[in-house]
Amino acid sequence: MISSSFRFDSHQFQSRMRSAFEPRKPRHRALRFVLGVIGLGLLALLVMFSVALGAAMLVGGLLFKAWRGRGKLDKRPGGRRVVDAEYRIVGKPVLTR
């Protein structure tokens, strides 16, 4: 059972949660500058890593596609894709009352 002296203070709770997860800038100018440069460097490193990973995936896909198609001989005559079929023209349906 909760005693009557306990009261939930939402303002205090929100203040503590905000201070726990909100990054604070240091007061010293040089330290702020150094941390900013470190942050930009980390961002540039992550972008370069993602671009390199994407390029490697594209190259790997192209190499796999080329390797998979290697050694297959085209057994169709002339090596072309020919569709042989018979067609008939179907008229528009007539609506009757």
From TrEMBL:
Keywords: Membrane, Transmembrane, Transmembrane helix. It comes from the Bacteria. The chain crosses the membrane at residues 33-64. This is Transmembrane protein.
